[in-house]
Design goal:
Blueprint lengths: L9 E3 L12 E3 L1 H4 L3 H12 L21 H19 L4 E6 L5 H14 L5 E4 H10 L9 H10 L3 E4 L8 H16 L4 E5 L8 H7 L5 E7 L6 E4 L4 H4 L16 H19 L4 E6 L5 H14 L4 E5 H10 L9 H10 L2 E7 L6 H17 L2 E6 L8 H7 L5 E6 L10
Parallel strand pairs: 3-6, 3-7, 4-5, 5-6, 8-10, 9-12, 9-13, 10-11, 11-12
Antiparallel strand pairs: 1-2
Amino acid sequence: MCPLCLGARFVRVTADQDDPAFGQPVPCECVRNEDSRARHDRLLRYSRLGSLSRMTFATLLRRGRSDDAEAQRRYEQAVDVAEAYAARPEGWLVLSGVPGCGKTHLAAAIATRAIERGTPALFFGVADLLDQLRASYGEDAELPYERMLEQLRNAPLVILDDLDAFAETAWAREKFLQLVSHRFHAALPTVFTCERPLGELDARLAARLADPAMSQVLALQESTAPTYSQVGAMTRARLLEFTFERFNPGGRGLRGKVRDNLEGAYRLARQWAESPHGWLVLIGGNGSGKTHLAAAIAAYRLEHGERVCFANVPDLLDELRSTFAPGSASRFDRVFHPLLEVPLLVLDDLGAQQSSPWAQEKLYQLINHRHLARAHTIVTTNLELGSMEPRIASRLSDLDVSVVYEVTAPDYRLGGV
């Protein structure tokens, strides 16, 4: 071990206060005397790039992998910016775009170029970083928490890949924001990659990343949101079978008030589909036609170019729960966030789910968000509003937002409608 730096590789100038480098870390003699091959290998180990070290500017496709001409143009421009940044890292560089568009390759290439120049660079996937920070609390940790955090805060160049993973828990959010804020205030070179637009990230994080005095933000390839998505069995092909033309507003020989009620539900659904406003809440027993009418509205709006999500509530909650399972390929925010923002959301069979406190809270968060936003929403349920969780019932019954209609027709599948 070097007797001057004790293995730290850097020393601080402390004797001469007039020296411009006073108090700043400078390479130790052991580093300056190191041969170039040994230094490269040491910096590569330090970088944590691992197998990503093969991702260099020489191995990337300069126009990317997309067939879209605009995406190719953007990627080529991004390569030029990234090469200039790698030659002289200053401020922040933010690379956003859909999975597979080449963000990680560009970010890794910046790190490998720094290593080629003999400059330290740290590369972390955000999810792995947070895992290692948690592990650093353990007594047998390879690197204690404080030393690891200090290394991340003050490294000459840090690359943080896949920002979308940072918001898994309140602890993760706070620790990550502490790190980002430190590097922001110190104006330390940092590269970020993310899938979502900055406006969809945590507001505090987005404000740092989008600061024009600090960051260059490059959108490599913007996502095209699918026009239809579903949670549960209502596939697009299945949805298109549930049209207004296939709905029989007279049922199977219905007469009197029951027939009038079903015809009223049909007319209301058609009017809402042609001119959506607020929410439509359909209450009724099994097989009364609620789901058919909700799907017919969704199919109509889809045909007219609106983005639609059709979610069976019990299936939705099962999917949200599954995101917390070890090894899950999905993350909670990637399932939940689109439900908040989709222009038309159908929540089918509300009330059929297991009413655990967790389920009620997630449903409330979703319903409250869309209620405040006045986002077009259709809800079907076989429960009376008075038997629902009060906060949810209050929003569904708000006459300033919702039209509530009770369908009294008997079960069609049993021959009654």
